[in-house]
Amino acid sequence: MQASDLLKIAKTYGDPVYVYDSEKIVSQYQRLTNAFKGVKKLKLNYAAKALSNISILRLMNSLGSGLDTVSIQEVELGLLAGFKPESIIYTPNGVSLEEIEKAAALGVRINIDNLSVLEQFGSKHPNIPVCIRINPHVMAGGNSNISVGHIDSKFGISIHQIPHLLRIVDLTKMNINGIHMHTGSDILDIDVFLYASEILFETAKNFKNLDFIDFGSGFKVPYKTGDIETNVEELGQKLSAKFNDFCKEYGKELTLAFEPGKFLVSESGFFLAKVNVVKQTTSTVFASIDSGFNHLIRPMLYGSSHEILNISNPEGRERYYSVVGYICETDTFASNRRINEISEGDILCFRNAGAYCFTMASNYNSRFRPPEVLWHNGEAILIRERETFDDLIKNQIDVKNLFSKKEMKKEKATAK
């Protein structure tokens, strides 16, 4: 996309606004598919939590992707978007048995990550195939909040609990059809995947009826020009060879599965916001925008660094700015960042805004969530409207009669 296209979208749909480039999503999907062309059976299950707009889900479905879901609501969204139940894998954490049973009743694949629920589910539904999420005890990820495969993680069944797991499977006679792991996000070192794969392959040998092995995801994408990223081509070559060798030893062609989210949609996204105020203090120049962590929380939550461009003045000389929001708390997107000279009214563009950005937005400070626009075949298509005041109060119940003068008098009289 060109800056002129983004400026036109901001003018047409207002700001702040999220924009997604479908061409980038398609190219990322094809890149990952090509990286693992060495295996006979490959399945990419898009992680819906990264960006769950139904139009994005429909795009993924059209590419042949499956869907990775973590809640019953994401399962229902996937079905509404046209995914077949068997193309959806449900990988919750800490949910009730009732929710898992509801997902199973919808026909999707079930992935269980704790011994307690595994035993309960297997005892009640031994004929429903189940995938097991293993915790390989591998510390990986760009931030402690997104490292989920280490020994103190709440996710997965510890590899040290395999004997307990096997006892449950034996006693319930349940059918284990998949083995799964996910070590974290923003993983740069492919040796992490290769090391964890050996643990997963060794675990898989305990189960005789597997259909697939799921390696999760966590591939690192570049956040600025020249930034480092996971070499998925090298990973594809090395992991495919290991996987094929395992399939020969296992005696069956299994499906190699991944659950990419950020890798597919992060770079497709742009977040556009207008500069309300340029404020000079004794040591800092602030560029205050018409947004805050109610719309984009990742820099404050994860310390993520999004490249910020002044698309209104791309040729201006660079100066140092701290880009901040309008929330009545400290909401700093960038500190002392070199950006082309900013004036009030300019549109700033945050890159890598496709993953875990809108999906984590809120109505904090009673602000409206922004619209979403899909850039597809050179055309801007609105895929979510900007919220209004009616949306903000839609589910609230106004109990104003409780505080009428008449009711207050009754309350005082009762108190006496």
TrEMBL record:
<feature type="binding site">
    <location>
        <position position="329"/>
    </location>
    <ligand>
        <name>substrate</name>
    </ligand>
</feature>
<protein>
    <recommendedName>
        <fullName>Diaminopimelate decarboxylase</fullName>
        <ecNumber>4.1.1.20</ecNumber>
    </recommendedName>
</protein>
<keyword id="KW-0457">Lysine biosynthesis</keyword>
<comment type="subunit">
    <text>Homodimer.</text>
</comment>
<dbReference type="InterPro" id="IPR022643">
    <property type="entry name" value="De-COase2_C"/>
</dbReference>
<dbReference type="InterPro" id="IPR002986">
    <property type="entry name" value="DAP_deCOOHase_LysA"/>
</dbReference>
<dbReference type="GO" id="GO:0008836">
    <property type="term" value="F:diaminopimelate decarboxylase activity"/>
</dbReference>
<dbReference type="InterPro" id="IPR009006">
    <property type="entry name" value="Ala_racemase/Decarboxylase_C"/>
</dbReference>
<feature type="modified residue" description="N6-(pyridoxal phosphate)lysine">
    <location>
        <position position="49"/>
    </location>
</feature>
<feature type="binding site">
    <location>
        <position position="356"/>
    </location>
    <ligand>
        <name>pyridoxal 5'-phosphate</name>
    </ligand>
</feature>
<feature type="binding site">
    <location>
        <position position="298"/>
    </location>
    <ligand>
        <name>substrate</name>
    </ligand>
</feature>
<feature type="domain" description="Orn/DAP/Arg decarboxylase 2 N-terminal">
    <location>
        <begin position="24"/>
        <end position="266"/>
    </location>
</feature>
<feature type="binding site">
    <location>
        <position position="302"/>
    </location>
    <ligand>
        <name>substrate</name>
    </ligand>
</feature>
<keyword id="KW-0663">Pyridoxal phosphate</keyword>
<keyword id="KW-0456">Lyase</keyword>
<comment type="function">
    <text>Specifically catalyzes the decarboxylation of meso-diaminopimelate (meso-DAP) to L-lysine.</text>
</comment>
<keyword id="KW-0210">Decarboxylase</keyword>
<dbReference type="InterPro" id="IPR000183">
    <property type="entry name" value="Orn/DAP/Arg_de-COase"/>
</dbReference>
<dbReference type="InterPro" id="IPR022653">
    <property type="entry name" value="De-COase2_pyr-phos_BS"/>
</dbReference>
<keyword id="KW-0028">Amino-acid biosynthesis</keyword>
<feature type="binding site">
    <location>
        <position position="356"/>
    </location>
    <ligand>
        <name>substrate</name>
    </ligand>
</feature>
<dbReference type="Pfam" id="PF00278">
    <property type="entry name" value="Orn_DAP_Arg_deC"/>
</dbReference>
<dbReference type="GO" id="GO:0030170">
    <property type="term" value="F:pyridoxal phosphate binding"/>
</dbReference>
<dbReference type="GO" id="GO:0009089">
    <property type="term" value="P:lysine biosynthetic process via diaminopimelate"/>
</dbReference>
<comment type="pathway">
    <text>Amino-acid biosynthesis; L-lysine biosynthesis via DAP pathway; L-lysine from DL-2,6-diaminopimelate: step 1/1.</text>
</comment>
<dbReference type="InterPro" id="IPR029066">
    <property type="entry name" value="PLP-binding_barrel"/>
</dbReference>
<feature type="binding site">
    <location>
        <position position="218"/>
    </location>
    <ligand>
        <name>pyridoxal 5'-phosphate</name>
    </ligand>
</feature>
<dbReference type="Pfam" id="PF02784">
    <property type="entry name" value="Orn_Arg_deC_N"/>
</dbReference>
<dbReference type="InterPro" id="IPR022644">
    <property type="entry name" value="De-COase2_N"/>
</dbReference>
<comment type="similarity">
    <text>Belongs to the Orn/Lys/Arg decarboxylase class-II family. LysA subfamily.</text>
</comment>
<feature type="active site" description="Proton donor">
    <location>
        <position position="328"/>
    </location>
</feature>
<feature type="domain" description="Orn/DAP/Arg decarboxylase 2 C-terminal">
    <location>
        <begin position="18"/>
        <end position="354"/>
    </location>
</feature>
